[in-house]
UniProtKB/TrEMBL annotation:
CDD domains: Polysulfide_ST (cd01447). PROSITE patterns: RHODANESE_3. This is Sulfurtransferase. GO terms for molecular function: thiosulfate-cyanide sulfurtransferase activity. The lineage of its organism: Bacteria, Pseudomonadati, Pseudomonadota, Alphaproteobacteria, Rhodobacterales.
Length: 132
């Protein structure tokens, strides 16, 4: 089966039109009260690898519905007057998601390399309590 567009091409198209933030620059934003980092990974990924302190968890599947004030699923966190930086594991899902948000008129950027290089680059990581 040949697709009209590949996933890799979708990521490339998205990356060409969104703001990409380098890991070192994002690390400097962790305690910045004007920035909200949003983790769109699955709950199990967050559980397994830990997460960026202060990051808000928004599963990718709910993204459009949680940012839209007209949606019954709207989350107040997205009403904040802050810079929103979305991330996933390697920057693919967050690139496509950020382009989608841009199409919706929601201003956001994404973490170019995702969480994959975060810890090695010196980024702080928090771990959830193990399930009892
Ligand atoms: O979407 S991904 O970059 O986390 S594999």
């Amino acid at each position: 089966m040949s697709l009209k567009i590949t996933a890799a091409q979708m990521v490339a198209n998205a990356r060409a039109r969104i703001e990409e933030i380098e890991t070192a620059d994002a690390i400097a934003m962790v305690n910045d009260p004007t920035v909200q980092i949003v983790d769109i990974r699955d709950p199990r990924e967050r559980q397994r690898t830990g997460y960026i302190p202060g990051s808000f968890h928004c599963p990718r599947g709910m993204l459009e519905f949680w940012v839209d004030p007209d949606s019954p699923y709207f989350k107040e966190v997205f009403a904040q007057d802050k810079k929103f930086v979305f991330h996933c594991a390697s920057g693919w899902r967050s690139a496509i998601s950020t382009a989608t948000l841009q199409d919706m008129g929601f201003d956001a950027a994404h973490l170019k390399e995702g969480f994959s290089t975060w810890e090695a680059a010196g980024g702080p990581v928090e771990h959830a309590e193990p399930k009892a």
